[in-house]
Design a protein that fits this description.
The protein is mostly helical and about 240 residues long. It has 2 domains: about 60 residues, Arc Repressor Mutant, subunit A, CATH 1.10.10.10; about 140 residues, GntR ligand-binding domain-like (Four Helix Bundle (Hemerythrin (Met), subunit A), Up-down Bundle). A two-stranded antiparallel ribbon has the order 1-2. It is globular and about 55 Å long. The protein starts with a helix and ends in a 13-residue tail after the last helix. About 20% of the residues are buried.
Length: about 240
């Protein structure tokens, strides 16, 4: 069945938001989008409402629809959702993982270790992504796989717009991968596998929260202490 005009516009706008082409605060002008897409304003409004329900768009008084502003809390919430989805997917994938898939998980973890030693953060992230995709692809649930991909893409957009860096857990992440591989090889209980995979993702959220707290504490200290060499101005009574 061919996609409706509303579905086509929705897919187009969603793609551009998740790819970062439409960044936080970008105004979605209904008439302009309708003219560019060759449709009436109605399917555009319906598509924008769908995006609002997903949290990707907000409506501002006197401004109309805008791409949702950068919000670290949204990254935390989305990571928590991914932790739940990935925990379930990993447990579901466990019985279907052949020897080749387990070897692939080991190779990607070794690649992460090599990148860590050579300070290759981009290569580390790529190997980490490939590791998790091996598990995603083996879960055997098309709807779950679609949710995982959608959530990952949303996280990618948030990483580019919310903050400049995410805590680099390096050796901890590698150790967690190796533990997960060991559980999979041993045919561990599904609940234990799901818990390990979920906690692996939640550890990144905990690291991010700790990093944020440290940044806030540093900024507070900077406000309390005058800059070196700066005169101390007495407060008025």
């Amino acid at each position: 069945m061919a996609a409706t005009k509303q579905e086509q516009v929705y897919a187009l706008l969603r793609e551009r938001i998740l790819d970062g082409e439409y960044g936080p605060g970008y105004r979605l002008v209904i008439d302009r989008i309708a003219a560019a897409a060759g449709v009436s304003a109605l399917p555009v409004r319906e598509a924008v409402r769908r995006l609002e329900a997903e949290g990707l768009v907000v409506f501002r008084p006197n401004s109309g629809a805008q791409v949702s502003p950068a919000d670290p809390a949204l990254w935390e919430e989305t990571m928590t959702v991914l932790a739940v989805l990935e925990g379930y997917a990993t447990a579901a994938a466990a019985p279907a993982l052949a020897a080749g898939a387990l070897e692939a998980l080991g190779r990607e973890t070794d690649a992460m270790a090599a990148c860590l030693e050579s300070f290759d953060a981009l290569g580390f992230a790529d190997a980490n992504r490939r590791f998790h995709h091996v598990l995603h692809e083996a879960c055997g649930n098309a709807a779950l796989l679609d949710l995982l991909r959608s959530t990952e893409r949303r996280l990618d957009a948030l990483r580019r717009t919310v903050f400049t860096r995410i805590p680099y857990r390096g050796s901890d992440s590698i150790a967690e991968h190796r533990r997960l591989i060991a559980l999979l090889r041993a045919g561990a209980d599904a609940g234990e596998i799901e818990r390990a995979a979920r906690e692996h993702k939640l550890a990144t959220v905990a690291a991010f929260r700790a990093w944020q707290a440290a940044v806030r504490a540093h900024e507070a200290d900077a406000l309390r202490e005058p800059a070196a060499g700066a005169p101390v101005v007495p407060r008025s009574a």
